[in-house]
Design goal:
162 residues; alpha/beta; Ribose 5-phosphate Isomerase B, Chain: A; five-stranded parallel beta sheet; 6 helices; 44% helix; binds D-ribose
Length: 162
């Protein structure tokens, strides 16, 4: 059986955590796909959010993990990509609900705010919790997809000329 692929990306704020979470991904029997960054030098989180988001959106990987200082920038950026449901999770309960209720496909973590051991628990929970098959949750996730469709070109009439 082919292993599920998990894309993982980080900026400088998330580099140390990424090294540990790659091991967690492997220990669960998944294949990590590391898109960087690969050092402590300053980098821009949107670059890595876009890479991981595109891999999830295209189906090249099954899920994604993004780590920056707060997880906020990563989640904002990744959620710009069609089909991405990126969830910023701060404890395992949030990770459970992000999977069950929102069928989230990208986990965002804040390395400057959440201790490493808690991030490991969050990651294990996120990757092993299935999405709920209850009709109300499926209906709500479908409504998110419909928002994406309806708003593909949204904003053009509100944008001021530069
Ligand atoms: C980098 O200093 C920091 O802004 C970034 O890691 C992240 O927290 C952004 O949301």
């Amino acid at each position: 059986m082919t292993k599920q692929r998990i894309a993982i990306g980080n900026d400088h704020g998330g580099y140390e955590y990424k090294l540990e979470l790659v091991k967690v991904i492997e220990s669960l029997g998944y294949l990590p796909v590391d898109v960087g960054s690969n050092g402590r030098e300053s980098t821009d989180y949107p670059d890595f959010a876009e890479k991981v988001g595109q891999m999830v959106s295209s189906g090249e990987v099954d899920m994604g993990i993004l780590i920056c200082g707060t997880g906020i920038g990563m989640s904002i950026a990744a959620n710009k990509i069609k089909g991405v449901r990126a969830a910023l999770c701060w404890n395992p309960r949030a990770a459970t609900l992000a999977r069950e209720h929102n069928n989230a496909n990208v986990l965002c973590l804040g390395a400057r705010l959440i201790p490493m051991d808690e991030c490991i628990k969050i990651t294990k929970t996120f990757l092993t919790t299935p999405a709920s098959k209850e009709e109300r949750h499926i209906r709500r996730v479908n409504k998110i997809k419909m928002i994406e469709e309806r708003n593909k070109i949204c904003g053009s009439k509100n944008q001021k000329q530069a």
